[in-house]
Amino acid sequence: MTRSTNANDTLGAMLGDLARRRGSAPAFIGEGETISYAAFDGASRRLAQGLWELGIRAGDSVALWLPNGPEWLALHFACARLGAVTVVVNTKFRVTEVEDLLARSKARLLVCWPHFKGIDFLGILREIDPLAVTALKAVIVCGDETRPPERTLERATLPYRALTVKRPFDDDHAAPEAGAILFTTSGTTSASKLVLQTHGAITRHARAVAERFGYTSPDCRLLQLLPFCGVFGYSAAIAAIVAGRALVIRPSFRAEEAAKLIAQHGITHMIGSDEMFRRILSFGEGERPFPRWRFAGFAAFNPSITDLVSAGEERGICFYGLYGSSELLALFAAQAPDARPEVRAQAGGFTVSPEARARAREPASGRILPPGETGELELKGPSLMAGYLGDPDATRDALTEDGYLRTGDLGYVRSDGGFVFLARAGEFLRLGGFLVNPREIEDFIQSHESIEGCQVVSGAEGTRPVAFVTLVKASALDEPALRAHCLKGIAKYKVPERFVALDAFPTTQSANGIKIQRHRLREQAEAILESDKARSRRTRAARDQSAPLPRS
Q1: Does CATH place domain 428-537 in 3.30.470.20?
Q2: φ/ψ (deg, to 5) at 389
């Protein structure tokens, strides 16, 4: 795919242009602090000079282990001006994960917050083997009024403020095709990959998002609560910046505070997770509690939330589903705001870039499928990654010969040019010879009066479904009643073999929100079905032993 370029296809050039055009306009609104675009550009240039004097050059990596704040973005743009790559470190990472990321990215500097949400970051660093991070030359401590230690990981340790008093760095050592940021893919540390995104991919994608999502509207104001260390929060923030709009930032999400900020600052647009929005809406009183809040793009991380779009309709807010990934950047596609509510509730939609393409392939035959038929989604566009750092084999395996990303997601394209994401390929069930979306079964089971939430996974070669459920208050699990309910409403081959009640589903907190750990549910399902099988064998053996001997 041919990628167009222009003078602002590097992050530094983009910010410099914004400072000239939107100099006095607010860029960030924090707690008691508003920063203009001109001030932000100046701060990033001074930081770039400070990093330059520490020896950071084009191609080097600088790791940011920080919560949301202007400092994170100023450092990122400072690195961008130098042609250095920002390595994002999730604030929830601990010893093994941080050590692994610093080592594999060959980070020359680490910038961290000493304490955040009760987490002792410097204490975690003290447990890392200094010999495992040989490329690291120094540690920068940000956001602490006290003097930092002289040495961390046996390296020199400097306060953030030492970088902020330099003269501005006026050059731009980056190029559109140069790497700008490294994201880690989801999964365990040993299985994660480092996704390299370039300046050109980021800036072109951000402009397309800003145009598509209505950020160019003069009255647009955005609330940023998703962490920058995740591709979801990062993509949303850069799109707001490229549009020159005001971004209200907080370092962490608290639903009640978010509801107040939306009203206080006249927020018009927001990107978040379904769980985040559900909790915010619980603090809204009256029919129109947030009169200026018009649009909210969401990622569906909690399958039990099925009424978000309708809840938004009642409050005058247009909620619409999104799709993205580290390899393609978040906000790669979105449902149309004027689509029917049932369509807007789906993940996927139309690609934000007119140059992007989507198709579905049948895994078994390799055949490209027509609209409406489910297969593995393959996507490409200007935001496609440069590759997985240090892993050319994985990069090659992830891409088709004609440049599409093999997403590992199941879905289908629509006749109108959009596409629908259904689930990760490993989450679909092969039941009765058919490929079944577990969401279909879950939605039906949740229609039973006793069920609050449901997750259906497979055990035993993926052909035997087990339903894990959470119950409404004062209800008890009644497996026969649930089985009878299912037999009346869905095909027999879709009816779970077992129904298991849980107090809560196992979850993990990612940079983008809370996700249900379906792999843990699959492990439990396998153990339950194996136990049932063993019990059945013992029952048959006991019955055979007690049976009368045949007469001769």
Answers
A1: no
A2: -60, 125
